TrEMBL record:
Pfam families from the UniProt entry: TctC
Family: Belongs to the UPF0065 (bug) family.
Protein's name in the database: Tripartite tricarboxylate transporter substrate binding protein
Length: 321
């Protein structure tokens, strides 16, 4: 589901509940900072969540897009906000990737933010051009090993999640390919469809329509089971690559110092919102699963991700241009 299909859902006005905010809860409008431009799933999920929270809390919840520098501009704004519970950050894998790419990053995602909850997960899918001749992951790995550096993969830019997702796969399989960066993963996918690039890794949401149309072949998806949206595509585990499990994820954080009681209440309210049939259906249509977690579980997840991507960046020698 793209932004055009979700516009009718997002166009509905926010409806305030009649109940007043609980004692001790901060009054005023809540702000969700999205560190990317409008139209991405990060942005769409924030707007869907804002609608649900507005009704639940009886306060307006607004989304503010602060894109730039791979998500670091918006994250910096959230870190520097007053920790009163009225400013939240809704971000994705980039939060854990940025520390390895930006030596002068003005914040530490592990200490300058309080994790509130994970809200969604989406599998990665390996997309190849139909004429490549590799019908499964094993055949692709064999082809890459026979011709090191001859095959190419596209991404949404140097150091992007799509770039590092592929570098992780190359690490796991012991292969080498040519990286061709583009401005956004959609542009990379279009080049694969055109046959000018051999493959790309993207979120399931980015690739599902192309696989269904037959313009791209899906060779593998991450996760413990096949994706309901593309049940014909095997998992990497089935394909013999059990150590490749890169998932796209999205979560909510707040500035360091946000009161624990407020974080707990936010986590509860987000959990309620994630059970909304409208939100669950919209997430599923975009190839994502609504996923609620405790603050502690989310903090541990981000810490693992920071360590993972630091290792990938160092092994691949990735540097921003």
């Amino acid at each position: 589901m793209n932004r055009r299909h979700l516009l009718p859902l997002l166009a509905a006005p926010f409806i305030l509940s009649r109940g007043s905010a609980a004692q001790g809860w901060p009054p005023g409008s809540l702000r969700i900072i999205v560190p990317f431009a409008p139209g991405s799933f990060t942005d769409i999920s924030a707007r869907l969540l804002a609608q649900e929270l507005t009704g639940q809390l009886g306060q307006s919840v607004v989304v503010e897009n602060r894109g730039g520098a791979g998500g670091t501009v918006g994250a910096t704004a959230a870190v520097r906000a007053v920790p009163d519970g009225l400013t939240l950050l809704l971000t994705d894998n980039s939060l854990a990737i940025s520390p390895s790419l930006y030596p002068a990053l003005p914040y530490n995602p592990l200490t300058d933010l309080v994790q509130v909850s994970r809200i969604a997960d989406s599998p990665s899918i390996l997309l190849v051009r139909p004429g490549l001749g590799a019908r499964d992951v094993a055949a692709l790995v064999a082809m890459a090993k026979a011709r090191p550096g001859a095959l190419s993969f596209g991404s949404g830019g140097q150091g992007s999640s799509a770039h590092l997702a592929m570098e992780l796969l190359l690490n796991v399989t012991g292969t080498r390919m040519l990286h061709v960066p583009f401005r956004g993963v959609a542009a990379a996918i279009n080049e694969v469809i055109a046959g000018r690039v051999d493959m790309a890794i993207a979120s399931l949401a980015s690739g599902v329509a192309h696989v269904r149309a037959g313009t791209l072949h899906g060779l593998g998806v991450t996760g413990a089971s096949r994706a309901a949206a593309l049940p014909q595509v095997p998992t990497f585990i089935e394909a013999g690559v059990p150590r490749y499990d890169m998932m796209y994820w999205w979560g909510v954080a707040a500035p360091k110092g946000t009161p624990e009681a407020v974080v707990t209440r936010l986590n509860t309210e987000i959990g309620t919102a994630l059970r909304s049939p409208k939100l669950v259906e919209a997430f599923a249509a975009a190839g994502a699963s609504a996923t609620h977690s405790t603050p502690a579980a989310m903090a541990a997840h981000v810490a693992r991700e920071v360590a993972l991507w630091r290792e990938v960046v160092q092994r691949a020698g990735v540097k921003l241009e």
